[in-house]
Amino acid sequence: MTKIIIVDENDNEIGLKERGTLNPEDIYRVSALWITNSNGEVLLAQRNFNKKHDSGKWGPAVAGTVDDGETYDSNIIKEAEEELGLKNINFKKGIKKERFSNKHKYFGQWYFLIIDRLASEFIIQKEEVEKVQWFSKDEFYNLYLKNPSIFLDSIKKWFDEF
């Protein structure tokens, strides 16, 4: 089974745990890639309905938990290729590792990419992603205000930053 990196409150590695065996006090690492296009739209991904956590919820185009032997950077490169078929991407590192606390405790490293491609042109990994869709920022915001429960809890941070 895959082991994920457990960190302290300063994001220093303190151990490894098998995925699925975390305690509520464990803090881990997550990377997320926010994709926009030249029209100012944001690409959101809907998590597969069979996912154990947050199934069917909308979130960043790509996201993943940092596994043993990975860095935030290597994780987002791997996840972008696996989840959307993106190779040789030139992303911009965004918000520094920031601790989020809701149901889970983790540090999240955000990355940004501007790409002009139809949603149907992404090669999605069906085990992870139900679908991807472009939203104007107004559509995204209004949908969030109307129905926040269809989004990952961390989505609010996106609106706080942009």
Give descriptors for this structure:
162 residues; alpha+beta; Nucleoside Triphosphate Pyrophosphohydrolase; ten-stranded mixed beta sheet
Written account of the structure:
The protein is an alpha+beta fold. The chain has one domain: Nucleoside Triphosphate Pyrophosphohydrolase (Alpha-Beta Complex), CATH 3.90.79.10. Helix content is 19%, strand content 35%. It is built from three helices and ten strands. Strands 1, 2, 3, 4, 5, 6, 7, 8, 9 and 10 form a ten-stranded mixed beta sheet that branches. 29% of the residues are buried. The model has no long low-confidence stretch (mean pLDDT 91). This is Nudix hydrolase domain-containing protein. It comes from Candidatus Wolfebacteria bacterium CG10_big_fil_rev_8_21_14_0_10_31_9.
Question: What string gives the helices and strands in order?
Answer: EEEEEEHEEEEHH
Mean pLDDT, all residues: 91
Task: Name the structural class.
Answer: alpha+beta
Calculate Rg over CA atoms.
15 Å
Separate helix tally: 3
Tell me the domain tally: 1
The CATH superfamily is known as Nucleoside Triphosphate Pyrophosphohydrolase
CATH architecture descriptor text: Alpha-Beta Complex
GO molecular function: catalytic activity
Pfam families: NUDIX (PF00293)
Protein name: Nudix hydrolase domain-containing protein
Organism: Candidatus Wolfebacteria bacterium CG10_big_fil_rev_8_21_14_0_10_31_9
